[in-house]
Amino acid sequence: MMTGREPSIRLQGVNHWFGSGETRRQVLFDISISIERGSLTVMRGPSGSGKTTLLTLMGALRKVQEGSIRLLGQELHGASEAAQEMLRRRFGFIFQAHNLHESLTARQNTLMGLEVHGPGGDAAKQNAAAVHILTSLGLGERIDYLPEKLSGGQKQRVAIARALVSNPEIVFADEPTAALDKEAGLNVVRLLKTLAETRGTSTVMVTHDTRIIDLADMIITIEDGRLA
Amino acid sequence: MTRLLQLVFRRIPIGWLQLTHNRARLFAAVAGIAFANLLVFVQLGVVASMTGTIEMTYAPFRADIIISPLRQQLVNGELVSRRVLYIALADAAVADATPLYIGNADWKQSPSTTKSLIVYGMKPEAVAFAGATVGNQLAMLAPFGHVLIDREIAGIDQLAEAGKSPPFEINGHTVQAVGSFQLGSGFGADGGLFVSDQTFQQLVRQRSTSTPSHVLIQVKPGETPAIVAARLNARLAPEQVQVRTMSQAVADEINYMNTEAPMGIIFGIGVFIGGLVGLVIVYQVLASDVAAHIKEYATFKAMGYPHRFLLGIVLEEALIMAFLGFVPGVILGSGAYQIMAVATGLPLGMTPDRALAVLAGTFVACAVSGMLATFRLRSAEPADLF
Ligand SMILES: Nc1ncnc2c1ncn2[C@@H]1O[C@H](COP(=O)(O)OP(=O)(O)OP(=O)(O)O)[C@@H](O)[C@H]1O
Ligand SMILES: [Mg+2]
Fold first, then answer.
1. A26 alpha carbon to ligand 1 midpoint, in Å?
2. Transmembrane ranges (chain B) (predicted)?
């Protein structure tokens, strides 16, 4: 934030392996990337090429094995679990599976994205933010519904609301629009674009949707664990 | 309720919402905990009433110190030599001492029913050593065959109070109830008789007045029983007896019953099993809940919630279940006490401290289950979510 010049994500010489001993296998090779603030970056590549692995490394969900990853000016290599946790609170994650809590309403699930910043927040303000984002995702009528009363696409939109409600500095998404129809999918991307312009939110998204790729500021293509 | 918990926790009460989301499972868990509570209440009630019974067996006497054979209880034990009584009386701090005789006798009420009685014998003139329920009646026992009868022996007591109970026969001797006293129904005998030392010698075979069961002592005003007891203990060391204050003797006997007597051990095990049942039920519910929602928990972790937040949710569920189970548990327990009190004549009832102790125990057991269940949370790995 203070160092306005520094990119939000910078990878240098990142290698990654799965397994150990005989079965140890390298899946990422010498990845170096810089992602600017407020940009929409699309990652693509064939199945098994390492997109998800790279995304989880960038999202501080995995320990960096080799190389350097700097997120918002902070080095991830060797960072403690607690430091990664604090960093992740500044991100928004959109998973392929929505992973909503079945016993929480759309509103409550969304609020979980705000409560991670600890108690003491203004409850009325938080509530207004949750309602606002759910409404802008077309769920204004479903705010107090439990997930079981929502369609697959609606559930995914609640998960997106949960990820975006706290105005994250970086959004990581892995095929987030797979469960949505084309129009809803584009809506999500437009919302991310607006966030990028108004708040400088960076988005890294794995997708094969060509219409989204058309909107991207940067495209990363991975083949067999290497940048292509 | 949700709003209340939200204020208490200052967050969305996920545990509560999760529990109430599956009503059938919650009901089963609460019923299980209530049952475990009931089990524990019944066991504790029986133990407490046995404690009360022991206290009652000492109630007919009033003494500061009791000299007893080594390692034994008030009733059914060995004997002491009357010589110790004279040694005790020689102590300057001792005001008075009297022998107490305890034995068993059968009362053939009819050819088919025999009641086993505990027989207490004391000198009729030792009224100062008589407890409240015996009191001055002791003096009435001087004529041979005059007895006080335990109020718990149905039917006889009212007649005895009125002084017109029919004579009956014990071990071939005809006795006449001239009054009653309170012993309380216990586990050892059907009832009790209070008699003079002379009558005792006749009713209980093979006992002589030279070997009492215990010696009761009263100390002079201003003397501390515990100090006198310790001094007598040292002085009587060669006599194979133990000298204790009366309250110490009662405490020892209660302790013996709880820890060594088969009855106490069985009930102790009952309490343990009750607790275990509750623990297993809560663990089962929580562990399966964690397993079913591992992805959601991993999502929280990915969002930056610390591990202890997840522990907090599981613990919240555990404590809510504990409380919801305790409420019907304590109600069922009170009901069970009333039924048991009527059926057995034992002095049983719910006491606030016992209820609180069980509530605390339930909380602890549920918290332990919760902790065990959270081990599975370790497998909530956010990197596997994508
Ligand atoms: N947890 C893991 N343990 C071992 N190997 C793994 C693990 N996760 C992924 N891999 C392997 O690493 C390689 C890259 O997987 P990754 O999931 O990153 O690919 P992807 O580009 O996201 O593929 P897709 O488009 O199918 O989602 C694959 O060969 C995969 O089998
Ligand atoms: Mg993938």
1. 11
2. 26-48, 265-286, 318-343, 355-377
Among the listed residues B77, B13, B8, B7, the one whose alpha carbon sits nearest the alpha carbon of residue B256: B77
Domain boundaries, chain B: 2-54+261-385, 71-239
- What is the least distance, in Å, from the CA of B22 to any CA of chain A? 9
Residue list, ligand 1 pocket, CB within 6 Å: A 18-19, 27, 45, 47-53
Q: Tell me the β-bridge partners of A70.
A: A10, A75
Q: CA-to-CA distance for B194 and B203, rounded, in angstroms?
A: 11
Both tokens assigned to B239: 């006599």
Residue B263: how many CB atoms within 10 A of its CB? 13
Closest among B253, B211, B218, B213 to B232, alpha carbons compared: B218
Q: What share of chain A is helix, strand, coil (3-state, %, to 5)?
A: 40, 25, 40
Distance from CA of A88 to the nearest CA of B (A): 5
DSSP single-letter state for residue A149:
G
Cα B344 from chain centroid (whole Å): 15
**Residue pairs spanning A and B at CB distance below 8 A:** 76
Q: Count of CB atoms within 10 A of residue B72's CB? A: 16
Q: Name chain B contacts of A89, Cβ cutoff 8 Å.
A: 303-304
Residue of A nearest to B10 (CA): A119
DSSP-derived 3-state class of residue A183: helix
Question: A126 by DSSP, 3-state: which?
Answer: helix
pTM of the model: 0.74
Cβ B21–A103 below 8 Å, yes or no? Answer: yes
Q: Measured between alpha carbons, how far apart are the two ends of chain A, in Å?
A: 31
Kindly state whether A82 is in contact with chain B, defined as any CB-CB distance less than 8 angstroms: yes
Long-range Cβ contact pairs of B251-254 (< 8 A, separation 24 or more): B253/B54, B253/B73, B253/B74, B254/B51, B254/B54, B254/B55
Q: What is the ipTM of this complex?
A: 0.91
Whose CA is closest to atom 12 on ligand 1? A27
Contact A155, A175 (CB under 8 A): no
**Are residues A222 and A45 in contact, defined by beta-carbon separation less than 8 angstroms?**
yes
What is the spatial distance between Cα A198 and Cα A215, in angstroms, rounded to a whole number?
17
Q: Which strand (E) or helix (H) includes residue B379?
A: none
Interface of B with A in 272-311 (CB under 8 A): 293, 295-296, 298-300, 302-306
Helices (H), B236-373: 246-259, 262-292, 294-302, 307-344, 352-373
Strand-strand pairing, B173-181 and B146-150: parallel
The whole-angstrom distance between residue A100's C-alpha and the CA centroid of its chain comes to: 16
Q: B383, A62: Cβ pair inside 8 Å?
A: yes
